[in-house]
Specification:
Elements lengths: L1 H33 L7 E2 L4 H27 L8 H15 L2 H6 L6 E2 L4 H25 L1 H22 L24 H29 L4 H5 L4 H13 L10 H23 L4 H4 L17 H9 L59 H18 L1
Parallel strand pairs: 1-2
Keywords: Membrane, Transmembrane, Transmembrane helix
Length: about 400
């Protein structure tokens, strides 16, 4: 038994650690390849916020890597696992996500940013992201709605980033500087990009909160779980910008998305709370009518009267009838059984037969006499008359 438990724990921790490290390295490789993150740049003091914007990406990569490690380890958790097991698994996910630290510090050795020590700063941001990812992984291990929110927001962030860098993939185009959760596409005007930077993350968090809250409500989760279903994913964006900072430029390049990220977590909770408290349509709240059924017999509240009714003999289903009398040779076919006849089994009571309707005797038909008979009768009457005279 202890050997099996050790094997289960080793598999759980190994999968969590490996997936977290693989997720962190894969995201960094994809970001390097698409030009989303460029850590070898030489930036002047006026463009220092571009370096700060990349720090938000690095912190978010570490946190999302820990989350993916926790989601992968969730399927290997033993049934009825306690908080200690989940906490140990979350720590393992954070350690796996820490692979982002050396993978970002090494290319930052060639970067030159005015007034900043690139290697130290980017290493500190990656470490803070891995620590914050530990708590995010614990949430992913504990709550299903948290896993939904992490996956939805993470997918949306990558879609926005790919849309932003897609125009630069054409020959002769320069790579843009892409900020976390902001549409920085080259085909958008600068003023429009500045406005979208303020509203993209809050709107995304609000929509995802409403959708996830409604999904949790349809699955009959508790009210508290529904209300907090939109928090986890936007909270990663808020934490990433908190690690990176608001920047120091006056053009709002980093400060605008920073304050937008500060409101993202609240917008996500607002959307899920709306899904939890809004009343459903009357068609869904109304109880479906049951098919018509015959009413149940009512009980007599008085037990004495109920006993009296039960002891009262039931009336005979046959009405009293007088003894039928034969007429005109007609005798009813039903006769009483003789005393000597053996007793028969009781037959089910049938409804009484109707009285037969008396039939009038046929009228007497006088015979038609022949002429010879009438002559004989006349002669006999004449002879009898002579004798009397």
């Amino acid at each position: 038994m202890p050997v099996m438990a050790f094997r289960t724990s080793a598999k759980l921790l190994g999968v969590t650690l490996g997936i977290a490290a693989l997720a962190g390295a894969s995201q960094l490789g994809l970001a390097y390849g698409l030009g989303i993150v460029r850590l070898t740049r030489v930036l002047e003091l006026t463009a220092r916020d571009q370096w700060t914007a990349q720090l938000a990406w690095v912190a978010w990569f570490a946190m999302s890597a820990a989350v993916l490690g926790g989601i992968a380890g969730r399927s290997y958790l033993p049934k009825h696992s306690g908080a200690g097991t989940r906490l140990g698994t979350a720590v393992t996910a954070g350690l796996g996500a820490a692979v982002v630290v050396p993978l970002t510090m090494q290319p930052a050795r060639t970067a030159e940013v005015a007034g900043v020590e690139p290697v130290f700063v980017i290493g500190a941001c990656a470490t803070l992201g891995a620590v914050a990812g530990l708590f995010a992984a614990y949430a992913a291990l504990s709550r299903q709605v948290a896993r939904w929110s992490f996956l939805v927001i993470g997918t949306a962030v990558w879609v926005i980033a790919i849309i932003s860098v897609a125009p630069s993939m054409a020959p002769g185009k320069e790579l843009p500087t892409v900020r976390l959760g902001v549409i920085d596409a080259a085909f958008l005007d600068d003023s429009l990009t500045r406005r979208t930077a303020l509203f993209t993350m809050p709107v995304l968090a609000l929509i995802s909160g409403i959708a996830l809250g409604w999904t949790a409500r349809r699955r009959d989760f508790s009210t508290l779980t529904i209300a907090l279903s939109g928090l986890a994913g936007p909270a990663l964006l808020t934490a990433a910008y908190l690690v990176a900072g608001p920047g120091s430029g006056d053009d709002g390049y980093q400060s605008v998305p920073y304050w937008a990220a500060m409101t993202a977590a609240g917008a996500g909770v607002l959307g899920s709370v709306l899904a939890a408290v809004l009343r459903r349509a009357p068609e869904t709240d109304r109880v479906k009518p049951t098919p018509d059924r015959p009413p149940l017999p009512r009980r007599d509240p008085d037990p004495v009267s109920a006993i009296a009714k039960a002891s009262t003999p039931l009336p005979s289903p046959l009405p009293p009838q007088s003894q039928p009398t034969p007429f005109d040779g007609f005798t009813p076919s039903r006769a009483r059984p003789s005393k000597a006849s053996p007793a028969k089994e009781p037959q089910p009571i049938s409804p009484p037969l109707p009285h037969p309707t008396p039939v009038a005797p046929p009228p007497q038909v006088k015979e038609r006499r022949q002429p010879e008979d009438r002559d004989k009768d006349g002669v006999a009457e004449w002879v009898s008359g002579l004798g009397n005279g």
